[in-house]
Structure formats: structure tokens, C-alpha cells
Amino acid sequence: MDNGDAPDIEANLTAVNAPVSARAYLTEMWHRRDFAVAVPLEELRSAHKTTLLGNLWHLGNPLLTIAVFYFVFGVLLQSNRGIDHYLLWLTIGVFTFRLTSSSVLGGATSISANKGLIRAIKFPRALLPISVVISHVLTFGIELSLLAVFTMASGVGLSRRLLALPVILIVHTALNTGGAFVAARLNEAFRDVQQIIPFLFRLLQYLSGVMFPIQRLLGNGIPGWAKQAISLNPVLRIIDLYRWAFLGTEVDVGATMKTAAISLALLWFGFRYFRAAEWRYGRA
Amino acid sequence: MAVRARMTDTLSIRVRDLHVDYEIFEERRAALRERLVKHQGTGRRVVRALRGLSFDVIEGQSVGIIGSNGSGKSTLLAAVAGLLPPTSGEILVSDEPKLLGVGATLLPAATGWRNIRIGCMALGMTADEVDAAIDDIAAFTDLGEALDRPLRTYSSGMRARLHFAVATSVRPRILLIDEALVVGDQAFHKKASERIEELLGTAGTLLLVSHALGTIGETCERVIWIEQGRLRGDGEAADVIDTYKRSVG
Fold first, then answer.
1. Looking at the whole model, is its pTM more than 0.80?
2. Are B125 and A121 in contact (CB under 8 A)?
3. Within the 13-42 window of chain B, which residues sit less than 8 Å (CB to CB) from chain A?
4. Complex ipTM, two decimals?
5. Phi–psi pair at B169, nearest 5 degrees
């Protein structure tokens, strides 16, 4: 077999498992973009049988969460002192935080939930966590329109700042996709990760100023390293950005820039981290 | 008949000194705590599924792969499909192979229709291409109203029909079939054979794993016999099947 004509006869062949460059991989993903969109779309459709009531159920969970937080933090603990339109402020926090938590948790299970597909067909596996993220962005679109209605109803009115929403959503989605990639690989290696993630997010929820302004915490005599960690929390800054867009509350420009950098860095790292173990997804 | 590639033939698949090992976890996979405490999970061991396999397949050739259970046939197909990475050695192909496995479930909770759509898109079709092809694919499956039911309610024969229709909808140049034909009934068998003929007629290549030696004899001109991950025989279908039968007794 290793005779002189070997190079000629192999001219039209390519190695099955040849390492794929990031560029070629992305091209392949782009080529199958319909797949990434079809999976979540059909899921939404089949999960709730396309009924209006069914789609409203998507909102049931966050709305009940908001009611609970409003009662505990607004009525009982009175954390809403000094915040105008606390209910709206809280709703923005809950909706945007949920986009991150559900994207990452969904990303974690995206490999195990699609084993059949993975074992049967070779395609860029990164499409699976991405399709989860897309699915939650679609739901978030409904929530954003609901927020717009609430904002008008509460007399705040719609500001021109809302034109920045697409940019904010892009940074937010970069962060969520990066998180989904990391969670997908970790959960594939250690099946307990999906059990731990909800607790991590519960902690993160307290540190992201979803129910009460985080500045209150930062003012107290807490250790410097904790302050530092909290102020670097990208979810906190992203929620601030949405609140700025809807309510005109203050944002820390420097911290926002850092957040954008952190989000893009996480996306880049997550993609590489996910891809490095791609070959073993769905096995054993 | 060409068993080894000649200068005049166009190579379709070249497998060179292929080794595939994989780790298996007995019972279940290690949890985080076990990994941290015991370093390695419980019951982890390495299976050497393929141990130095080499062969060439030329365009338009249909090759049957036989061997006893656990000989490495399915591993070989998964490796050629790019679903299992080789531990060492090389697999070269002229086009992206499509694998058709009997166990393939795609999306168990989704309806047949949705499995066709998603499956075709995973294979690289756009939504428009799927729209254009879906009626033909559905007709080929002959599943009728069953396409409205979730895939998990299908029998293995019905699943094979659906999967065969999806995998061949993109007219692959290299088709790998793992037992999927055995579970189908006569009608499906006939349809599938016709499509395979069509494929081979247009310089397509087929690797067929089966325990049904009759099917192999009918469909394939050449047979590769593997045992314990090594090549045991390679040649004209009738000859190799004869030798195989005699060895089994």
C-alpha cells in the first residue's frame, strides 16, 4: 500500500477526523443555521400546542416569581425605598436574570438531551447549546414587549434609550452563550453539574441586584474582595443596562465596558472550551 | 473484481492501520465526588474495539462487513462516519459518509415529521430544501399517519424506515448502514434495495454491516470479515461468506 502511487490515489481524499479550524467550523455552523433555529422553534410549538394560553404559560413562572419577590422584598423587607417604579424595576431584573440562568442551565443539558441525534449524525455540536440560547432569546422577546407595555402603563413612557436594547441584548447573549458552552462541557464530564447550577444561580441572583439594589450591600462593611467580586459581576451590570434603557436609572460606564469585555471573553473561551472536548460528546 | 485499489480506480474510502479504543464505565459514569475522592471512577476500563485495520474501497463498490457480535463492525462504521475518533491510524474519504444505524433514535419525543425536518437540517439541508423534499421523504417512509406520532412509539422497523429516508435524502456518495435493513419488512427492503442500487449506479459507495448473510450476499460484491478488531478476510462476497460459515461451523 505504501508504494509510489499513494499520493496520487489519495489526492481526492480527506481525513475523516482531520482537525477543523475555528473558521471552517464556524462556516459549517453557519451552513446549518436553519437547524439551530428550527430546534427551538419547533420545541416552542410542540411544547404548548400553539395555543395562546399555552404560550402565556411561559410567562406564568416569571410573573409568579415577581409576585413573591414583590411581597417579600417590597412589602415585608421594604427594600424598595428610594427606588421609583419598584415593580417595574423588579420585573426587569427577574426577566433579564432568567434569560441568563435558563440559557446556562439549558446549555448544560443540551448534549445529554440530544444523544440520539449526536450518535446518528455528524454536525457541529456547538449548535445544540446555541439553539437553547436562541430558544430563550425568543421567549425573552415576548417578555421585552410585555415590559414595554408595563412601562407605558405605569406612566414612565417609552424612552429613546430603548433603541440601545439590541446592543444590550447582543452583549447579554454573548455572556449567556459563553456560559452555556462551559456548562455543556462540564455537565458532560460530571453529571452532577446540572444539579449544582440552580444553587449557583440562586447565589448569583442575590449578588446581581435582582430584588434589591446591590449598592446597599456595597455600602456596608463587607470585605473588599467581596465588593470587588460583586462589582465585576457581569449579570449585575447587564441588568443595570436594561434598567437604564427602560427607567433611565444610572449606569457605571467603566463597569459596563468591562462587562462587555468579560462577556465577549467568556463567549470566546466557552466556544474553545466546548470544542476542545467535542469529539467525545454523546459517547458511552 | 477489484478488491485492492488499482491505479485506474478512484478511491472512496481508505482505512489505514485503524485502532479505536474507548473507555467504558461499568454500570454508570463517575460522579464528581467519586472522581475527586477516588481519582478515577468506578469500573472504568478500556475496550480495544479495533486493532489495526487496513483496507481500501473504490467508488461504486458495495462492501459487506461481517463478523461475530463484538468484533468491531459497528465501531468501524461509527469511526468512518466520524462519530468515533481513531486512537491511531487514518481514515480518508472522498465525501462525507452518512451513517444509518439501527439504534438511531434522533429525537424520541418528537413526531416523525419533526424528526424528518430536524434530521435533514442536521445533515446540512436548509429549511427551504427540507420544505421542497419533505413530501418525497415522507412518501418513501410509507409511514402515513404514524408520522404524527412521537418517534418513541415507533417499532424498530418504522424507525429504520424513517432514518433510511432521512439519511438517503441528501443522496450521500458514501452510505454506511448498520443492521438497519434487517428490521424492515419486505416492502421496505425492496424500496431500500432500489435506492441503494441507484446510489451505487451513480458511483456511490456502500458499507453494509449485517448478520443476515443472505442480504450481504445479495447486496454486496465484496465482503470484509473482522474478528476481535482485526481483519480476518477480505475478498469476493461468496468466498468470504463461505469461509466465514465454515469457521462458525
1. yes
2. no
3. 14, 16, 22-25, 29, 31-33, 35
4. 0.76
5. -65, -30
